[in-house]
Specification:
Aldehyde Dehydrogenase, Chain A, domain 2, globular, 2 domains, Aldehyde Dehydrogenase, Chain A, domain 1, single chain, alpha/beta, seven-stranded mixed sheet
Length: 481
């Protein structure tokens, strides 16, 4: 156990209130760390440190920022075991998932190393004789980032690396359930050479201090990953204050299995799509639609595979299911399953608990009056539904307020492409799981699943601002006569 203080201006700073909160290991809810409980004054200190550092370092060459990314990747490779240990003990990541997070983060840092040299504009023809016209991209200033508990390293690296690579300062408000991972990021960026004040962290309850950060007059852009409810609230703050923002929110992602699909591959992909990290993933395939002629065969094979999904030692490579993050979230998972059962749904596999771990749960016969039909469970729970035509499958897939990720398994290219075009989703994967991400892609969703996109290309839209510059020749007549 350790105490974790804010990281402001290149130093660890105790909370102004003197208060700390408990960070628990979700395996047994034992105390893992004591964490600074931030106040609005702490937020203000972090933002102002970012403002001062941005003004001091805004003209650093691209090569310097590029160097931070390469160095950070080297450090993370060296310390990969340390990052994985925290992911396992702080948020209950099975080691396979912790390994995926560290590999992705390292890859993202290397991809972000190319960003500083891509912050460029263009020359533009001018209607005025003798006038040279060009556009520039410039850093916006201070970027605020709010990250979730489920992939704290991926999101922490995505947000901070892009802000720093584009020349901004960054203030991070991490999930209350993943502060120690954020503390590692402070050490990472410091060792990588990032000047004091360009990377800052304030810990605390987002419901109490989130508005102080996102609404701060000197925060120019916001990048948030979390629930749709909070995302809509942040969007309102950003709109009122004319701030740039991106939101990566919840999901109720559909996976379609057509009769001509490779059944074994579809079962394996569905298993990964919903039970990786015990279903605490926004892209989780919590709705699986199977063509009626193969529905029973798929249900039998999938339920059998789900019943073999291993719970247990998080450091064992074959373990798939770890603990649900908190008692509040465990109650949500239980209530969704209990409500479905009480209203007539059949449990094909799972719905059993071992300590804080829920077994891989597969439901059949779920109807629209059940909570689990529309709401995101954010746990290892999925429902199977039959369909007769592709048109019906598309209609069912789109019958949700969410639109993050979708997947279809078929050997028919026409069906696959039709689904890709008609699915109301920010991402569509053909013959692949609903879970996938890469550093350079436009990652994000539609409807209640988000606003804007993340990625080394897409993030330029909120991390930089366009500026138009003209130069008039001293010898030319700007009137054109």
């Amino acid at each position: 156990m350790k105490n974790i203080d804010h990281w402001i201006g290149g130093a660890r700073v105790a909370p102004g209130s003197g208060a700390y909160f408990d960070d628990l290991n979700p395996v047994d809810d034992s105390l893992y760390a004591m964490v600074a409980a931030g106040t609005s004054d702490d937020v203000n200190s972090a933002v102002e440190a970012g403002v001062a550092a941005f003004r001091m370092h805004r003209n650093l060459p691209a090569a310097v920022r590029e160097g931070w990314m390469f160095k950070a990747a080297e450090i993370m490779e060296r310390d990969v075991a340390k990052f994985q240990e925290v992911l396992i003990d702080e948020v209950g990541s099975p080691v396979a998932k912790a390994g995926f997070e560290t590999r992705f983060a390292i890859g993202f840092l290397r991809a972000a190393a190319g960003v500083p040299r891509r912050v460029r504009g263009e020359t533009i023809p001018s209607d005025t004789p003798g006038r040279f016209s060009m556009s520039l991209r410039q850093a916006v200033g201070v970027v605020a980032g709010i990250t979730p508990f489920n992939v704290p390293l991926i999101k922490g690296i995505k947000q901070s690396a892009m802000a720093l690579a584009t020349g901004n300062a960054f203030v991070l408000l991490p999930s209350e359930a993943a502060p120690r991972l954020a503390d590692l990021l402070a050490d990472l960026w410091r060792e990588a050479g990032v000047p004091d004040g360009l990377f800052n962290i304030v810990y605390g309850n987002g419901a109490e201090i989130g508005d102080a950060l996102t609404g701060h007059a000197n925060v120019a852009a916001i990048t948030f990953t979390g629930s749709s409810r909070v995302g809509k609230h942040i969007a309102g703050i950003a709109a009122r204050n004319l701030k740039k923002y991106t939101l990566e929110l919840g999901g109720k992602s559909p996976l379609i299995v057509c009769a001509d699909a490779d059944l074994e591959k579809a079962v394996g992909a569905a298993l990964f799509s919903i039970f990786m990290f015990q279903g605490q993933v926004c892209m989780g395939a919590s709705r699986i639609y199977v063509e009626r002629s193969i529905f029973d065969d798929f249900a039998k094979a999938f339920a059998a595979a789900a019943s073999k999904a291993k719970m247990g030692d998080l450091r064992e490579p074959t373990t798939m299911l770890g603990p649900i993050i908190s008692e509040r979230q465990r109650d949500r998972v239980r209530s969704h399953v209990d409500d479905a059962r009480a209203k007539g749904a059949e449990v094909l596999a799972g719905a059993e608990w071992t300590g804080n771990c829920c077994s891989a749960t597969v439901l059949r016969g779920v109807t629209a009056d059940m909570t689990v039909y529309y709401e995101e469970t954010f746990g290892p729970v999925t429902s199977l539904y039959p369909f007769d035509t592709l048109e019906e499958a598309i209609e069912l897939a789109n019958d949700t307020e969410y639109g993050l990720s979708a997947s279809i398994f078929t050997r028919d290219l026409d069906k696959a492409l039709r689904f890709a075009h008609e699915a109301e989703s920010g991402m569509v994967h053909i013959n692949a799981p609903t879970l996938h991400d890469e550093p350079h892609v436009p990652f994000g969703g539609t409807k209640a699943s988000g606003f804007g996109r993340e990625g080394t290309e897409a993030d330029l839209e909120i991390m930089t601002e366009w500026k138009w510059v003209t130069i008039q020749s001293a010898t030319a007549n700007p009137s054109g006569h």
